[in-house]
Every structure is written in C-alpha cells, then in structure tokens.
Amino acid sequence: MIGVRLERRDYTPVWLNLMLPFLAILAALILCSGLIAMAGANVFSAYAKLFLSALSSRFNLVETVVKATPLIFTGLAVTVAFRAKFWNIGAEGQLLAGAMAAAFIGARQILPAWSLVPGMIIAGGMAGAFWAGIPAFLKTRFKVDDVVTTLLLNFIIFYGMMALLDGPWKDPLSGYPDSPDILMEAEFPILLKATRLHLGVLLAALATPLVWALMRHTTLGFAINAVGENAKAAHYAGLNITGVMMATALLSGALAGLAGVGEVAGLHFQVMAGLSPGYGYTGIVIAMLARLNPLGVIPAALFFAMIITGAEAMSRATGVPVFLADVIQGTALVTMLIALLFNQYRLRWTKQSA
Amino acid sequence: MNELFAQIFQIGFFTALIRIATPLIFGTIGELFAERAGILNLGIEGIMMLAAMAGFSTAFFSGSLWLGVLAAVLTGMLAGLLMAVLTVSLGLSQHVSGIGTTLLCSGLSFFFYRLIFGQPSSIPKINAFETVPLPILSSLPVIGPIFFNQFALVYLAMAIVPASAFILYHTPWGLNLRTVGENPLAAHAAGVSVHLTRYQALLISGALMGLAGAFLSMAQYNAYTFGVISGRGWVCIALIVFGQWSPWKSAAGALLFAFIDALQLRLQAGSLIDLPYQIFLMMPFLLTIVGMAMVSRNARAPAALLKPFRKEER
C-alpha cells in the first residue's frame, strides 16, 4: 500500500516561499469554480467578471483602491496581533469603535475646524485601541480567553452603536438609523479629482511601511515577535509579557480603529448599520495570506478588494450569488493554512506494509 | 417590585427559557466533545449557520422536518470532518482553522441560500416543529408546561446532557477521549489512536452543532435568516470555560445564559424598562464576558488543547 507522509524540510526554497500565497489563491479559485458551475454559469466568464470588472475602468480601479483601504488597516491590525499570538478576532468591533469616535468628533463643533481631521484620526485610533485593550486586559489580568472576548465584543459594540443610532445619534432628517453627516471641514480631502480617492488611502499606504519598520527594527517589534514565538522563553529573557501583550493589543486596535476613521471621514461621512460588511474578518484572511508580513498586506488587501468590488458585477452578469466572494475568502484562508505546511514539511510517498 | 416579578416570571417565561437554552446546549456539548479531545472547534458559529440553512432548505423542499434535521446533522458532520482534516491530520493552527471553517461555512450558507431561493419579496417559510406534550408528565402543574410540553428536539437536548456525561466519564471510549485531550502521549502508549479519537470527537461535535442549527431554523423560528445564529456559537465556547469543561456545569451555564436572554426579551417586550432594545440584546454578551472574567483564573482547560499530535515527532 502506498501512503503519504509529512516529512520535515531542512530548508525551504525561496521560490516556494514566495509562491505559497499564489498557490493558495489558485487552489481556492479552483475549489470555488465548482460553486460557479453549480450556479449554472460559465466558470471562466464568471471569474473574468469577478477580476476584470475591478480593472475595467479608471473609476472601478480607484474604487478598488478605496475598498482596499479599510482592509489594509484591518489586515495590519491582525498581523500585529497574531505576531504576538494575541488572537484578535475583534478588528471588526475595533473598526466600529474608531468609526464611532470619528463620527462623534466630526459632526460636532467642539474642535476648531483645522483640527477636526487630525482630531478624528487620533480619537478613532484611541477608540480602537481602547476596545482592543479590554480583551488584552482581561487576558493578562484574569486569563480570559482572548478569542472569545474579542468576538463577543464585536457584538457588544455593534448593538451599542445601533442603540445610539436608534436614539441619541439618530439623524433627525433621515428615516434610517444613521448618524448625521460630519461637518464639511471634517471630511478627508480628496486626492484625485472626480473620484473617491481620499486621504485614508494615503494613510493606509503610509501605515504599512511604518508597521513593517516597527516590527522589524524596533525593540517593541522584536518583543512582539519574541512573545509570539515563545512566551515562556521571552519571559525568562526578561520581557514583560503583560506589557508586550497590552502594547500589541493597543497597536492592533488603533490600526483597526483607523480603518473605521477612513470609512467615516473619507467615504460615508456618517456611521450606519452596514458600515463594515465584515472588514475585520477579511483582515484575518489578508493577514494570513500576507504571512503576517505587513508589506504583504497591501497586495492581499487589493486582491480581496478586487473580488468584493467585482462580485456585484459578476452576480449581475452571470447570476452567481455575490456571496461567492465570502466563500473565496474562507476557502483561501483554509488553503493558505495548508500551503504554509509546505514551508516546513514536504510530502513523501511511502510504501507501507499493510 | 412584586408586580414586576409577577409580570416577568410566568410559566411562559420559563418555557421560553428552555427553548433559548436548547441550541446552546447542543452547541456547548458539541464543542465540549471536541475540546475534551484536545481540539478547539472555532468552526462552531459557521457550522451552526450552514446546518441551519441546509436543514431549512431540505425541509422546505421535502416537506419533512426530520429529513431537514438529518440534513443539518450530516452537514455539521461534514464540516466537523473538515476541521478534523485540518487540525488533526495536518496539525494546523486550531485558531486559524476554526476561523477559516466559520468563514467558509457562513459564506457557503449565504451562497446556497441565495442560489436556492433567490431574492424573494417575502421570506420563504416552513411549517416548523410543533410541541409534543409528553403523556401524564405534561399535565403536572408548573413543571408540566415548562419541561414536558416542548419540541421533540428540546427533549433530545435534555437527554444529551446526562448521556454525554455518562459517555465521557463512565465508558472506556469516554476515558480514552479525555486521555487524548489531557495526555495524548499516554493514550498513544496505551494503544489508543489519538487521531481516530479526535476524528470521532469532531464528527460528534459537528453533528451536535448541526442539531443546534436545525433547532434554530426549524423549531425556534420557521425560516432561515442571515442573522439566525448571531453569536450563539461564540457564546457556547464561553459557556464551556464558564462550565469548567464539565457537561453538567456547561449545561447549567447555558440555562443561566438563557435566563438572562429570556429576561431581556421579557423586559423588551413589556416595555418595563425604558431602554433601547439593542441594550437588551447586548446584555447577555456583556454578562458572558463578566462571567468568564470571574471563573477564568481558576479554569483548567484540557492539557493538550490546541496541541497537534504527530506520532513521528514524539
């Protein structure tokens, strides 16, 4: 009988290392093509619509970049957290915290007009950091599992936000649970005429190398990696695990909060129920495909933004449900996880005696 | 105050409490089997969602609710199998595998629901399960209507708690499963297949999560909506920590959670306290976190939880 066995690799070829995310995505697309066929559409024309509509016009191209902006931030947030093995599944909630803080500051004349934009950025980052700080505090102080608390806090802040939108924050002019629009001075400037390319895009592009440099070249980055690799060893080496965990969480939450600030200040100018269609969860997929490397987050975020943007067009043209985009995300996370295995192991065909 | 009490704590309140607890009990006991074998099944939320969809659709087209339940259970087991391949055979990160399974399963449930039903103007509905009063028992005062005039799946949930406690603590297989979760090396040395046991645990886990989904879309409600699970799966994971990995205590935790949930529904419906209803919806989640903070310091998870087992790397 012939079997398959996983065997540890002595070294990983560089090409394989770089190829893994592409192989994972390819595998995910092949797997998902079965669903397209089930929906009675032509696999190639559906995928062509899915990917090419994002590139089909200048407008769509910019829209894809705009869509990628919150995903870059949540991808970075998850990257930082997972590096320390702080299982932050709460980027979704931290994004909402940032958005709410931005909407609160932006809609009120409490700050001088010139300071509105920086004020929203700072407040949004702090709100996200605060919301991520709660599970980190509970984890370090009371040993409460961070996965569960970050997840539950997503629901708590969502209901909290909806309570505000249904009550004190409700825009009296709107029939929907929406907050009033932020002031004109609070809106992020547009970087490219006649598009929605806003300041947030630039912030995301700047945040990425900054986070990379922080993780690669600073003591904090070193500590975050060390705690993630081996918390016990890091502790014996004299690192303050609690402090590193808290710092990781605050940084991660702040990044996710900025995703929310960008959506409010650059795109929607208000908070409403559908503010985030799961950007926080997509951030997890992006971080994993980027192999927890901040520089990988941008291409991964652009890729998923392309799919999310293209899904509507694909659905209209071929009748395949838009939720194919969600299935591709889930599948890609699973295939990437499997692909990472080939980093450490190789398949070895073995002859077994039965 | 007494009037408020009388208004809230009627028999209907406790009947509702039991119904709210039922999917949580299925989910919690399902998760418990996985965790006691050393696998954190974070796929729970998505598995419940996909099973709720599969069960509902099957019942919608076949007209048979029990066929729907079967479909939900099989769907759950299939997803459990996926978790097993990822975390047991391949030994991948249980955290990421579970999140991946949840994202995949919830995506699939949305995809297939839209594919099957399109976007109709009114939500497709089925004739959901009706209550099955148990002879004699249901006519007992107070406890009769609360416990014995319920859906068949509620009785199943009530039976599953003692059954799982018996299986885990009083059968050789249960002992093996717990050993695999505590000390896989010892189990392996004693001739128990760690991988096979974990596969079995994850299949049971998926089947029970499937029942939880089926209950929600076919008994509690008579339709599938995208928000049908809305965090209940995550709550189950918290309930296990709260229940210290014991079936009885975890089920008690489910009842406690259901009590809070039923209470908020009552307060909401009766407009007894003037607060936005979202605050009430938030309350059970908030208290779950408080509860976890109270017990987590002394919580002792199965020792091998989250640790993959590779024979060749002992």
The quaternary state of the protein chains shown equals heterodimer
Number of strands of chain A: 2
| Helix and strand run of chain B | HHHHHEHEHHHHHHH
CATH topology annotation of chain B: ABC transporter involved in vitamin B12 uptake, BtuC
The radius of gyration of chain B is: 20 Å
Beta-strand share of residues of chain B: under 5%
Strand order of the largest sheet of chain A: 1-2
Which residue ranges of chain A are poorly predicted, with pLDDT under 50 across at least 5 consecutive positions? none
DSSP helix fraction of chain A: 55-70%
- N-to-C SSE series of chain A? EHHHHHHHHHHHHHE
Shape of chain B: globular
SS-based structural class of chain B? mainly alpha
Distance between the termini of chain B: 63 Å
Structural class of chain A: mainly alpha
Number of helices of chain A: 13
Q: How many runs of DSSP E, i.e. beta strands of chain B?
A: 2
Notes on the structure:
- The complex is a heterodimer of chains A (354) and B (314).
- Chain A has 354 residues and is mainly alpha-helical.
- Chain A has helices spanning 14-38, 43-52, 58-83, 91-106, 116-142, 146-166, 199-217, 219-229, 231-236, 241-268, 279-289, 294-318, 324-344, and strands at 2-8, 345-351.
- In chain A, helix 4 packs antiparallel against helix 5 and helix 11 (279-289) crosses helix 12.
- Chain B has 314 residues and is an all-alpha fold.
- Chains A and B meet through helix 6, helix 11 and helix 13 of A and helix 5, helix 11 and helix 13 of B.
In short:
The complex is a heterodimer of chains A (about 350) and B (about 325). Chain A is mostly helical and about 350 residues long.
